[in-house]
């Protein structure tokens, strides 16, 4: 079913459907009236010669330079070309697609002053699979994601580059191949296309979807590890968590108990030991806290996805044109730093469980889960790899949002660095996915030593899923391939949003 964009009600689940299942979108019919009204305000002000930032003036420090009415179209074209100064590797097609969707939704609110044909081309590019090539570096995260969004806008005017059906080509070629025509920007439209937070928010939404799924997978893997180490289930009993009533902590404890229900490997308090190490006993507290982070991030993304982040904003009901600062990415910058910290920590505790699985001083399993200890090293070095990744995460988790460098001759003297925060969070998620994949490989190998038939039904199902990707280790082999294959399997599973992500996505 086609998703209607009205600028106010887009959900993360709908974003996932558009990104991963190529669900088509259209502008809500009731939104077109608001869009036309705001456009009329722009055209009236231009015809009357009124001074409006970015419409009849220059940009940034040039805001005091008045532009003649005859030059307002050239002003917008020059803006897009000059601001397309992005650098570095391009964002993924998924992020590019998300940027198209989120910018279209923002313009559909009716506060941006764009024409119908400009917004429609954004929607058409999304539906036809014309994905602008957008460099991932170069945004300060205030005045919007100017450089990334300028590269998006280039394709709409038939310039820049795009990916169409897997092939990289010029923006004009991509439009032609899709049966679309470029637009000629009118007053305000270039600024309306690039003055927003859609790069950081797009990376953030994609990162959130991946992180939410990874958090669910981490719970399942932790349960398998708990069994493989003959962990104590008492610490997960409801009464222990009722007296510290964080809903997310309680949710994780309940999930772990359900996963190990029917296990012949888990133990009770005092049976083998009085209590487990923190990396086992505190799974609900740590994984639950990560879910608190995800809930915070989701809340901010939901607001930002349905926000007007232009400057100036056009209010057709009053005729007011207000220069403000909704383009400033500070809320998303904080959220992305928080997301990175949360996902770094879920990897941190996972690495400690990996150590307990492979260290013969901490368990009664074969040293390093080796099939022939001494002659074969087994999974020894996978723990090194996990330790390397969690250490890298600690560097990446340094908050980008506390930094600011003035720009535009000090007119724009405080910026958010939100897109850097989002990119770092995305890298942390990728690293953490590999760490948890390593834990899954180690836990599965330990389970094969203990006896797969002794696993609980749900963890046995997970074991079989892992084994479809990573065979039982009977002798040393190149484990890098196993890690990457399992991490890719986890990453790709995020596309099954309706099945896998459950309550974390709405």
Mean pLDDT: 94
Count structural domains.
2
**Global shape:** elongated
Order of helical and strand elements: EHEHHEHHEEHEEHHHHHHHEEHHHHHH
CATH superfamily of the largest domain: Fumarase/aspartase (Central domain)
Class from secondary-structure proportions: mainly alpha
User: What is the distance, rounded to the nearest whole angstrom, between the alpha carbons of the first and last residues?
Assistant: 17 Å
Going across the biggest sheet, name each strand in turn: 4-6-7
Largest sheet entry: 3 strands, antiparallel
Which architecture of the largest domain would the CATH scheme give at its second level? Up-down Bundle
- Give the radius of gyration: 26 Å
The CATH class name of the largest domain reads Mainly Alpha
Tally of contiguous helical segments: 19
Question: How many β-strand stretches?
Answer: 9
Strand percentage lies at 5-15%
| CATH topology description of the largest domain | Fumarase C, Chain A, domain 2
Relative helix content? 55-70%
The low-pLDDT segments are 498-504
Family: Belongs to the PAL/histidase family.
Catalytic activity: L-histidine = trans-urocanate + NH4(+)
Pfam families: Lyase_aromatic
GO cellular component, one term: cytoplasm
């Amino acid at each position: 079913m086609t998703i209607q964009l009205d600028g106010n009600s887009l959900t993360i689940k709908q974003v996932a459907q558009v990104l991963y299942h190529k669900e088509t979108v259209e502008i809500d019919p009731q939104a077109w009236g608001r869009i036309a009204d705001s456009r009329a305000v722009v055209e009236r002000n231009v015809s009357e010669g009124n001074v409006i930032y970015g419409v009849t003036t220059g940009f940034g420090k040039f805001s005091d330079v008045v532009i003649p009415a005859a030059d307002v179209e050239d002003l917008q074209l020059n803006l897009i070309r000059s601001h397309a100064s992005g650098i570095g590797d391009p964002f993924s097609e998924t992020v590019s697609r998300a940027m198209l969707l989120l910018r279209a939704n923002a313009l559909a609110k009716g506060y941006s002053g764009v024409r119908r044909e400009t917004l429609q081309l954004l929607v058409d590019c999304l539906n036809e699979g014309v994905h602008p090539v957008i460099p991932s570096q170069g945004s300060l995260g205030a005045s919007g994601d100017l450089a990334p969004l300028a590269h998006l806008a280039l394709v709409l005017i038939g310039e820049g580059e795009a990916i169409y059906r897997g092939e990289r080509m010029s923006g004009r070629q991509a439009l032609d191949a899709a049966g679309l025509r470029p637009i000629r920007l009118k007053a305000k439209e270039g600024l309306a296309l690039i003055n927003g937070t859609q790069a950081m928010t797009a990376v953030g939404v994609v990162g959130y979807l991946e992180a939410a799924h990874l958090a669910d997978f981490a719970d399942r893997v932790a349960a398998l590890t708990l069994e493989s180490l003959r962990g104590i289930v008492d610490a997960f009993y409801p009464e222990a968590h009722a007296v510290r009533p964080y809903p997310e902590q309680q949710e994780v404890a309940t999930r772990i108990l359900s996963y190990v229900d029917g296990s012949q490997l888990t133990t009770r308090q005092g049976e083998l030991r009085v209590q487990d190490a923190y990396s086992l006993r505190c799974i609900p507290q740590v994984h639950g806290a990560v879910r608190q982070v995800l809930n915070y991030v989701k809340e901010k993304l939901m607001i930002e996805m349905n926000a007007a982040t232009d400057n100036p904003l056009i209010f057709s009901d009053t005729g007011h044109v207000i220069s403000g600062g909704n383009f400033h990415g500070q809320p998303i910058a904080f959220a992305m730093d928080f997301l990175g910290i949360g996902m770094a920590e879920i990897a941190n505790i996972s690495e400690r469980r990996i150590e307990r699985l492979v260290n013969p001083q901490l368990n009664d399993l074969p040293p390093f889960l080796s099939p022939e200890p001494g002659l074969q090293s087994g999974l020894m070095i996978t723990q090194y790899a996990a330790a390397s990744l969690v250490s890298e995460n600690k560097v990446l988790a340094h908050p980008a949002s506390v930094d600011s460098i003035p720009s535009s001759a000090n007119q724009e003297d405080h910026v958010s660095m939100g897109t850097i925060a989002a990119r770092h969070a995305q890298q942390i998620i990728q690293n953490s996915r590999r760490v948890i994949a390593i834990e899954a490989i180690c836990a599965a190998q330990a389970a094969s030593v203990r006896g797969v038939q002794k696993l609980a039904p749900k963890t046995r199902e997970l074991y079989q899923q892992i084994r479809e990707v990573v065979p039982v280790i009977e002798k040393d082999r190149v484990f890098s391939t196993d890690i990457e294959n399992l991490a890719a399997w986890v990453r790709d599973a995020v596309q099954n949003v309706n099945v896998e992500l459950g309550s974390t996505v709405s």
